[in-house]
Amino acid sequence: MVVTDPESNEIYRNTLKSDAWGAFADSLIVPSSGRLGRYTVTATLEETIHSVQFRVEEYRKPAYKIEVALDAEQYVQGEEVTIEVAADYFFGAPVAKAEVKLKIYRRQHHQYYWYGTSYVDELEGKTDGNGKAVFTYVTPKKGYNYRYTFEAKVRDESRLAESAEASAFVASSAVLVELKPASYVVAPGEKLEIDIKTHDILNKPVPGKVELVVYRHYWDKEDKVLARRTVRAGKDGLTVYEFTPKEPGSYYVIAKTKDKQGNSSDDKRWFYSSERGAYYTWKTDRVQVIFDAETYDVGDWAEALVITPYENAHIIASLEADNLYDVDIIELKGNTAMLRFKVRGEFLPNVYLSVCGMYDGEFFEHK
């Protein structure tokens, strides 16, 4: 690890060792004589180099404080957001007749991940005699869930500037729906439970009516509707739907719901039906590995369905992470195989199932 100042002078160098999770950390005190500007942190691992920058600025005691307040913690797209900016000097007087620029940003929100932040709009105004400025902004209907950030920058008559921000979630609908199959791989004739959850963007349960459609997927013809159901989630936002696939293949279920204003929300989940040791030929153009669950506890048995474009091929399947734990050579029956293994403590926090093979002189793999 090396840290250099804006003139590329080295101010820190150390060799660090990663922990069991692959992480490492250290700290440094920027010299009091250090130059202002961008500093660079460079990490070199074998022949791979990664870097990031941070800024060093001169400390300036703020002359006044800024507060940004919203009239709610969540909204539905199309609703109006009221943003109040308050500016007060630390000696108590309001910052009157100050210029205010309100920049609006948003990033798409999902329960398990975030997308990048993008600039949306900018509003301008002035504080009144009480040091307050009020803005309104109507959130556009985009069909996705977002987290909006409202950043206010205030500049007083002496041209001193201070800033602050506030954030809120903006949902595509007041009622959001989420599906979770109990397993992603079941045998033909085996009953599959699909958990259905209705909630708001803060993940608080809300009641809702959900329209369900189950499809059988085909590669060479139009997908077939197998079931249509309307289910209701109560105040706890939970209900369960049961479906039994009659034959092996690929399936998916689509759930749709609406709030009182007609705003819609939907979710889609795939699941598969296959029997261990049976001969199946599914049309596919790529190698797929489908686990029967998203997460496992130590001691659980995990099953994974392997589908390849190649019929009756031999594959090498391996469990690996920091070490190579297990290796097996498997002959496909048709173009599928069902693999099963016990989850062991040394797999923590993650383990990877890797499959590879040769077919007609062509190498294929998937992890």
Radius of gyration, in angstroms, nearest whole number = 28 Å
- String of helices and strands: EEEEEEEEEEEEEEEEEEEEEEEEEEE
Distance between the termini: 31 Å
Unreliable segments of 5+ consecutive residues: none
Large-scale geometry: flat
Task: Give the strand order, joined by hyphens, for the main sheet.
Answer: 6-12-11-8-9
> Based on helices, strands and strand pairing, what is the structural class?
mainly beta
In percent, how much strand structure appears in the residues? over 45%
Fraction of residues in helix = under 10%
Give a count of the beta strands, DSSP E runs of length 2 or more. 27
Q: Count helical runs.
A: 0
Biggest sheet record: 5 strands, mixed
Mean pLDDT, to the nearest integer, reads 91
What does this protein structure show overall?
The structure is a single chain. This protein is mainly β. The protein is 0% helix and 56% strand. The chain has strands spanning 2-4, 10-13, 37-45, 48-56, 64-70, 74-76, 80-89, 99-109, 114-126, 132-138, 146-155, 161-171, 176-181, 185-186, 192-199, 208-217, 224-233, 238-243, 249-258, 264-273, 288-291, 301-307, 314-320, 324-331, 336-342, 352-359, 362-366. The strands form seven sheets. Strands 6-12-11-8-9 form a five-stranded mixed beta sheet, with no helix packed on it. It starts with a strand and ends with a strand.
